[in-house]
Every structure is written in C-alpha cells, then in structure tokens.
Amino acid sequence: MRADRALRILGLAALAGMVATVWLGLFVTPNAVGYPDGTVRLLYIHPPLAWVMFIAYGMATLSSLLYLWPRTRHVRFDRLAGASAEVGVVFTGLTLVSGSIWGRPTWGVWWTWDPLLTTTALLFVLYLGYLALRNVPGEPETVARRAAIAGLVAFLDVPIVFFAVSWWRSLHQGPTIDLATRHSYVHGSMAWTLLLGFVSFTLTYVWLMAHRYRLAALRDRENDEGLGAAIADRWAEAVR
Amino acid sequence: MLRDALLVCGKDLRIELRSKVGLNQVAPFAAAVLLLFGLALGPTTAALKPAAAGLFWVAVLLSVVLAVQRSFAIESADSARDGLRLSGLDPAGIFLGKGAAIVSQLLVLEALLAAGVALLFGARLDGALVLLAACVTASVGLGAVGVIYGALSSGARVKETLLPLLLLPVAAPVLLGATKAWNDALSGRPGQADVWLSLLAVFAVLYVAVGTVAFGPLLEDA
Questions:
Q1: How many other C-beta atoms can be found within 10 angstroms of the C-beta atom of residue A6?
Q2: Where are chain B's structural domains?
Q3: Looking at the complex, does the CB of residue A230 fall below 8 Å from at least one CB of chain B?
Q4: Tell me: the pLDDT tens digits for A78-99?
Q5: Number of domain units in chain A
Q6: Most buried of the four, A105, A171, B12, B196, by CB within 10 Å?
Q7: For B158, phi and psi rounded to 5 degrees?
Q8: Tell me: the pLDDT tens digits for B44-72?
C-alpha cells in the first residue's frame, strides 16, 4: 500500500511539473530572437523527451545486462527492461514527432537525414522489434533470456549506426547546454523552465515505468495463480 | 571449437547442396528483386547506374532474411535442433559453423547479383579489390547477426514476420557502409572506401564476438 501511495505522489508531482513547464514555457519565458513564430518554446519539450529516451534505453540495457549476469539474475530485471524499453519507445516516437514539428519552421523540412535523426528513427524501429520479440509467448525464463540478449544486441548497434551516419552532412544544431564547458546558451527564466522540463519529464518516465512494471508483475501473478486455480479445480473434480 | 564449426558448416552446406533451396529459391528471389528495381527506376540506366550499389545491397539484405530463415528451418524440421543440442558440440562452434555456411552462400549469391547489376543496370565493376573486401566483411557481419536473430526467433510461432523486423534495422550500418564502399569503388575512388571497410569490419568483429559468447544460452531455448 505504501508503494501505491508513493506512486500516486510521484504521478501528482510529474503532473504538477508538467503543468508548470507548459505554463512557464508558453506564457512566462520570452520569445528568443532568430526563431520564427515562438518555435523556441519547443525547447522545453523536445530535449527533455530525447533525454528520457536515452535514460529509458540506458535503463533497459542495464537491466538486460543484470538479468544475463548469473549472480544478479532475477525476474525483476526482466520486467524492468521491458517496462523501460516500452516507455522508451513511446518517448522516441514523441521525440521524432516534436523534432519534426520544430524542424519544419526552422530548417524548412519535416525530415532530414541527419545523424541524430536517422539514429533516433532506427532506434525506434530497433526497439519496436525488441518489444515484438518480448510479446512472443513462451516459457517465462526463455522469453526473458531471449529478450535480454536481443536488448543487448540492439543497443550495441546504436553507436555503430551513429558513427556510420555521422559521415553524412549534419544539419542538427549543437547541444543547447555544452556539458564539456558547462556553458549554457540558455539564460534566466528559459534555463529554469528547461530544467523543470527535464525534471518533470523524468518524473513522468519513472511514473510510467513503475506502472508498467507493476502491470508486468500482476500479469505474472495472474498466470501463476490461474494455473494453481485450474489445478485445484481438477483436483476437486477428481475427489468428487 | 573450430572443428565443431567446420562440422556444422559442412553439414549445412551439404544439406544446401542436396536440397538446392538456396539455388532454386533464394537466388531467383534476388534476381526478381533486381528486375523489380529495374522496372521501378528504368528503363534507361540514368537512374539505375548511380543507384546500382545501393540496389545491390538492398537485394542482398532481403536475401539474407531468406537465407537465415532457411538455415533455421533445417534445424526445426524433425527436431534436428534437439539432436544438435545433444550432440555435445560447442555452442560457439555451432554459431560459427552456421554463420560460415550462411556467409559462403551469401558470397555466391553476391557474385551472381554483381553480374546481374553489371548486366541489367550497366554498372562497370571497377575496383574489384574493394568490392570483394566489402562483400566479405559485410557478409561476415550479416551472417553473424543473422544467426543470432535466427536463433532468437526460431522458437517463436511468428518467426516469419519477426525475423525481418529484428534483422533489417540492425543491419542498417552494413547497408550503409557496404553501399558507400561500393559507390566509392564504382565511381573510381577506391581509396576513399577504407573508412567504410573498417566500419564493416568493426560490425563483423563485434557481432561475431557477441554471437560466440551468447549462443550457448540461446541454443538452450525453445
């Protein structure tokens, strides 16, 4: 029950953060010069979405590794990997859509074969495949091991794809906050809104993932108890 | 391990030589794909010739899916898979053997396709060394991921639709690297292909290593 309450509080915090981000982003922050029609306001949405995508896939890969490692093998890592990858796919889709909406007014195109965009699109398809594989029925342990290996194989492909596509012409703008020099190109209320965006999207990710995890656990329990109930029924019939 | 690999590879190739599924189905399929490209982009070679490298590799990629499906279909028939598991062969050896069998079939197929591309699309096959190097490194990479995903999906009832979805996106860097290398060679700049060849080599080494390690647990399944 305590877990339920924590989850509810987390959801409320995510919702509040999201509302605040929207309000600050749309009405409080100034419009930046050089962006047509206030499109700079997508700044508070698009980078946080991409950020969540990264941590979601990072989490899925880490969980897959932990599942494959014999000492840490536990079904919770399998559930965690599945839950995280699923939320990651949703956020990848949102990243692509929001980026496309932003790209149209600023670059003049909906889509361009830029390394980041192409890698993201491939990530989307790669992890859709991963989720499809997870949904294939089988022995729970078989499914989990299969999924963990597929998750690793897919993740290993990401840097190769990125470097391969990087030799193409790059159009995407550089990162807004340069981590190496810690110099931010965003100041004042904009920076705070962006930070709030990162925090509230991350909270949303954790909330969604926790729910998916809970559902996976419940489904496993249903399967177990369903089998137990069926056996009990048969026994009852036999005894009668 | 290598002895086991040779045994498995020999077995797969022998089955292939006797059943001729690759020759009778996969190769004609690849030829049909080339013809369809010709219909889509022809009839003059104006659009076909510059695209020849890309079309060649897309045809190879589509054929890899069939080759991998075939490679695991022969294991699922008559529960040959159980026999393979009981044989005591090293899983890494089985992986390398099945991979090697697919790679050798792919190389034959690529030779046929290259002739087709030269014949139908009017591409002049210059820089043969680069072309060959790209074929070998790309085939090894494709064979390795192919066997990994073939084993992953072979137990599933939906394997026919699942395998292409898993395999094709992962093979995207191979398509890119091999196409670029071929383009460089075909347009008379074989010296620039080095970077793409090394990309293909990295991909091949990485997935051969992953498959060698991960094939044991994969084979236990299903």
A1: 11
A2: 2-220
A3: no
A4: 899 999 999 999 999 999 998 8
A5: 1
A6: B196
A7: -100, 30
A8: 777 788 788 888 899 999 999 998 888 88
